[in-house]
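Slide 14.
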Amino acid sequence: MLLYTKTGDKGKTSVIGGRVEKDDIRVEAYGTVDEVNCFVGQAMTQLDGSLFGDILDDLEKIQHELFDCGGDLANVTENKESKLDAAAVEYLEGRIDQFIEEAPTLEKFILPGGSPASATIHIARTVTRRAERLVVKLAKADPEISPAALPYLNRLSDYFFALSRVVNFRLNVKDVEYARSANVFKGKKRNN
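Slide 15: predicted structure.
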C-alpha cells in the first residue's frame, strides 16, 4: 500500500461520496475532530492505568467515537447513515455527573493545567470547542450532517473539563484558581 497518492497535490481531497477543496468547511470540521483525537491519545500516554483505568477505558471509547464523528462529517452522500448516536451523548452526561461528584466543589474559574495530563485534557477541551464551532458552520451549509455531532462535541468539551479536574484530584494536584475570579459557582458542583 502506498501512503501517498498525489491525488491531493492540486488542493482537493476525497470525502465519502466525492471530492472537495482541502479548505472546505467540511474538511476543517472533521480535521479538527481528528486533532481532538490526537490530544486524547496524548493524554492517554500521560495516565497511569492503575489510577486511571476507568478513564483510559473512557478515552479509548471516545477515540472510536471521534473517528465515527469524523467519518459522519466527511460523508457527502445523499443517504447518510450516522455511526455516532445519542447513546454516546448520554454516556458522556453520566460520566460528567460522576466526575462532578468526585472532584472538589468548584467555586471559582480555574486555569488550564495542574498536572501534565490535565493540561493536555484542557487542550483537548478547547480544540473540541473549535470543532464544535466549525460543525455549526458546516450545519448551515449541510443541514443533513449527523444529528448527534453537535450535541456530542458540546458534551465532550464539558466531559474534558470535568475530567481535567478529576485527574488533578486523583493525583493530589490542586486546580489553579483564576486569581481575579469571584465565587461564580456559589459552591455548586458543576462544570463550566
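Speaker note: The chain has a mean pLDDT of 93.
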